[in-house]
Amino acid sequence: MTQLNMRLSEDEQSRNVRKGALAAIVTQVVRVATQTGSVILLSRLLTPVDFGTYAMASPVLAFAVLFQDLGLGHATVQKDELTHNELSALFWVNLSVGALLAATQVALSPLVARFYSAPNLAPLTSGMSVTLLLSGADVQHLSLLTRQMRFWTLAGLESAAALTGLLTSAAVAYVYHSYWAILAGSLTSGLVLASGAWLSSGWLPSRPGSIKAARDMLNFGLGVTGYNLAEFLSRNTDGVLIGKVWGAASLGAYNRAYRLLLFPLQQVSNPMVRIMLPTLSGLLKEPERYRDSFRRAVLPALLLVLPGVGFMIATADTLVETLLGDQWSEAAPIFVALSIAGLLQTSNSPANWLFLSQGRAKEYMRWGLFNVSTSILAFICGLPFGPVGVASAYSISECVRTPILWWLIGRRGPVHHRDLMKVVGPHLAGALASVVTVSLLHRWLLARSIGGIPELAACFSLSYAVSLTIVALFPACRGEMWRYAQSIRGR
Question: Which of 87, 152, 155, 229 is at a distance of 20 to 30 A from 247, taking alpha carbons?
């Protein structure tokens, strides 16, 4: 396999950052639209118990996925030079681990059903194991496309997978009105993504051989896996505790609120890590260009999403009722309680780019362990007060962790504490301003009996207008906004 040189000229690097960011924006718009459509459609076709049942089985799959990838996708992108033998070795590792985990999940599915005293969870958990096989087959092909910076190809694949998954889930839910509709959409999406990755990359693995040549990449991947394990625990322990103590209906309400508010974070973090890992990894020896590329990427990552999160926070009561229906009224206060966590997690997502591109895998893992420890402590403290208590405690813990995170990431590497404040600060200020102004407009419109879609449209527009205005007050952000506008116009 021809080795890929990750060092590019400044103009090429700048174009790649903007090209990748624009591709990420398109992907994000499609995925947010499909996820929102999924939430709306499935919430009207299925019941809170259906979502709660699926949420009970989901942590088992998510836990297995952590070990199926082993962080080797990031290792493939981060490595300066890569050979065909190394890539093939990693492919067979991913595929073998995926098959082993799938078999293990099927074997353990009766224990999951016994834990929740719900026999129907056994076949559902077994069915989810197919996802592990699909993921194991496409990790290295997707990573190769990322390494080649083929961002528009990835955008097309992910958009197609999201749309086909939505259509499948909606069709199955309409016919059968069962939680199996959620799994059907997930499997369809995975199959489309895996097939597309194989066809688009044009790469075929060789026969299994020795993995000694990829030992350094495996070590890097283990550090990433350690962080992902901690992240998994922090994102799923709350659901397990609520499901065990408060039941499927309460968990279903919590799950819907969590997904509706915090889903935008995943739509920023996943595609942007894919863009920034190869981009920043090639600039470690050029600190000034590294900082410039980081600054350019933060603008679209946060400006597109943070105002939307602010809008959802300020209009939570109307938003939940309008999108999900009256049966989900219990989700509205949970949604509000999660609001601070939603804002801060979205603002904190660029820290992942810095950890990974600088090869700080062990430090990344240690931060993950601290994150999960404080999150679980918060969940336990809030559990006696129900789902709202858990959500509130989680937001408080995020407030405690955020300044520690930025101190930790800025003490080493090309991006220092002052750089972080100058880059992230304007976006967070704009989001907070949008929450305040949209809340005032929301109350004013409700007082005049203007609600539903017209009210939400007005509040949505105001949120982005206010946030954009605040961010544009800072000269560095204003200059970058102008450059992106020129790129979109093709100048």
Answer: 229
Give mean pLDDT, residues 448-477.
Answer: 89
- Sign, CA torsion 386/392/393/398: positive
Question: Residue 469: which residues within 8 A CB-CB, separation 6 or more?
Answer: 430
Each residue of 358-368: pLDDT tens digit?
878 788 888 98
| CA count, 13 A, side-chain hemisphere, 488 | 12
With the CA atoms of 108, 109, 115 and 120 taken in that order, what torsion angle do they form, in degrees rounded to the nearest 10?
A: -170
Burial 430-462 (b: 16+ CB within 10 A, else e): bbbbbbebbeebbeebeeeeebeeebbebbbeb
Nearest to 17 by CA among 413, 416, 289: 289
- Give the span between the Cα atoms of 141 and 87, in whole angstroms: 9
Place of tokens 């026969």: 207
Q: Please tell me the predicted confidence (pLDDT) of residue 3.
A: 45
Average pLDDT along the chain: 82
Listing DSSP states for 330-393 in one string gives THHHHHHHTHHHHHHHHHHTHHHHHHHHTT-HHHHHHHHHHHHHHHHHHHHHHGGGHHHHHHHH
More confidently predicted of 222 and 175 = 175
Q: pLDDT tens-digit profile of 290-331?
A: 888 888 878 877 888 889 888 988 998 888 888 777 778 788
**DSSP codes of every residue in 275-312:** HHHHHHHTTTT-HHHHHHHHHHHHHHHHHTTHHHHHHH
Instruction: Report residue 190 as tokens.
Output: 């995975």
Taking residue 331's Cβ as centre, other Cβ atoms within 10 Å add up to 26
pLDDT band at 470; cut points 50, 70, 90? very high
DSSP state of 214: G
| Residue with tokens 């809008």, as numbered in its chain | 311
Predicted pLDDT at 2: 42
**CA-CA distances (angstroms) from residue 415 to 94, 136, 355, 426?**
33, 34, 11, 17
In angstroms, how far apart are the furthest CA atoms of the chain?
71
> Could you read off the pLDDT of 189-223 as tens digits, one per residue?
999 999 998 998 888 888 776 666 566 666 666 76
Class of residue 209 by CB neighbours under 10 A (exposed 0-12, middle 13-18, buried 19+): exposed
Q: What is the DSSP letter of 68?
A: H
**Contact between 282 and 79 (Cβ < 8 Å):** no
DSSP 3-state of 129: coil
